[in-house]
Structures are given as structure tokens and as C-alpha cells.
Specification:
heterodimer; A: 113 residues; mainly beta; 6-stranded mixed sheet; 5-stranded antiparallel sheet; 11 strands; B: 115 residues; 7-stranded mixed sheet
Chain lengths: 113, 115
């Protein structure tokens, strides 16, 4: 069963506007969440993370929001740039599993110049 | 510095053939992870190591899959008697410590195609 879900396979946004990528999870024990970005023929690269004790983490143009009661997190990119076009994966980590990641299925973001 | 490297980048195997996929993690990284990514899916956990010890192999799909990291650095994922359903990208990642939330650094992956 898929414990981490990204229900939007793709998203298109105009350059300069906000991109919002969503992720839902089912396991309330997850205590750490991350977003990774992936370009074709490359491995995923780390973008931003958030601990379950927080509800927001910001790094430059990227902000991750966590709503534990809704089991939902989102990634906001403001302003969006063409170089942001990639597949974005959210990942979640349960406690005491040796940092084992559970990934969503990914959302392909296209930023239109 | 050098990142995680994987070889080969692409592998085509005939059904029934054995394959070996190599991962060179970032120097000094204690933890090493293997993931399988099927087309259109996210990476799925296969197994992980802390140094040379394989601490969890619960994600390995069958006993045809075997992973090792004998000296605590380079790791090899071996698939015996490959089947068409083994076709996927195999990703390796390493992290400095075995701490929840520690960033995992991924290699570019090996794309395995089984004919």
C-alpha cells in the first residue's frame, strides 16, 4: 500500500508565479519529511526538509508546510523559474527505521517562460 | 567533492541472466541505501547498510536479489535469473550518519532492461 501519495502527476505554472506541490500520507508515525527534485537521467537531489514538530520550513524560494492533523504537506516555490522544471518527490521517514525513506509517486512541474 | 556514482548507467540483460550493479557512495558516509524505481513511480526501498552490516533487507522483492557491502564502502546489488518485472532504475543513496532525517545523496541510477 502506498503510504505517501502525490495525487497530481503533473503541474504547469507560468514563470514568476507560485508553484504548489502537494503530498498526502497515511502513517501518522512519520516524523520527518523531505522534498527531492529530479531531472531526467539524474538521481534525486535534496531540496528541503521538515521535522514533524514544526509546521513550516523556509529556504530561499522554497517553503514546506506540514499539516499533521490533515496528514498533508506542501511545497511552495515562489517565484517559479524555468530551471525549476523537474519531477518533485516527497518522502517521509518513520521513527526508528534507520532513516528509511518512503517516497510518493512524484509530480512533474513545468514552468513556462 | 565527488558524489555517489553508480555503474553501469545502463544494462540490458536477457531473461535468466545474472546482473551486478555497483554503487560508490560518498567517502566517509556510514549509511548506504538501495531503491528500485519503476517507470512512473517513486523510488521504493530495497535494503540498507550501516558500514558493512546489512540492517534491513525487507524491501528486496525476492531471494533472487542480494546486496553486499563487504568493506563498508562500495556496495553491489546482484540480481540472479533476471525477470522482465525486474526492469527498473536502481538507485543508490548514501548518508553521513544513520540518523532519521539525515539527507540521503543519490547516485544517477542504473537503468536495467530485461528482455
Amino acid at each position: 500500500d502506498q503510504q505517501v501519495k502525490q495525487n497530481s502527476p503533473s503541474l504547469s505554472v507560468q514563470e514568476g508565479r507560485i508553484s504548489i506541490l502537494n503530498c498526502d500520507y497515511t502513517n501518522s508515525m512519520f516524523d520527518y519529511f523531505l522534498w527531492y527534485k529530479k531531472y531526467p537521467a539524474e538521481g534525486p537531489t535534496f531540496l528541503i526538509s521538515i521535522s514533524s514538530i514544526k509546521d513550516k520550513n523556509e529556504d530561499g524560494r522554497f517553503t514546506v508546510f506540514l499539516n499533521k492533523s490533515a496528514k498533508h504537506l506542501s511545497l511552495h516555490i515562489v517565484p517559479s523559474q524555468p530551471g525549476d522544471s523537474a519531477v518533485y518527490f516527497c518522502a517521509a521517514i518513520p521513527p526508528n527505521t534507520g532513516n528509511q525513506f518512503y517516497f510518493g509517486t512524484g509530480t512533474s512541474l513545468t514552468v513556462i517562460p | 567533492g565527488a558524489g555517489v556514482s553508480q555503474s553501469p548507467r545502463y544494462k540490458v540483460a536477457k531473461r535468466g541472466q545474472d546482473v551486478a550493479l555497483r554503487c560508490d557512495p560518498i567517502s566517509g558516509h556510514v549509511s548506504l541505501f538501495w531503491y528500485q524505481q519503476a517507470l512512473g513511480q517513486g523510488p521504493e526501498f530495497l535494503t540498507y547498510f550501516q558500514n558493512e552490516a546489512q540492517l534491513d533487507k525487507s524491501g528486496l522483492p525476492s531471494d533472487r536479489f542480494f546486496a553486499e557491502r563487504p568493506e563498508g564502502s562500495v556496495s553491489t546489488l546482484k540480481i540472479q535469473r533476471t525477470q522482465q518485472e525486474d526492469s527498473a532504475v536502481y538507485l543508490c543513496a548514501s548518508s553521513l550518519r544513520l540518523v532519521n532525517g539525515d539527507t540521503q545523496y543519490f547516485g544517477p541510477g542504473t537503468r536495467l532492461t530485461v528482455l
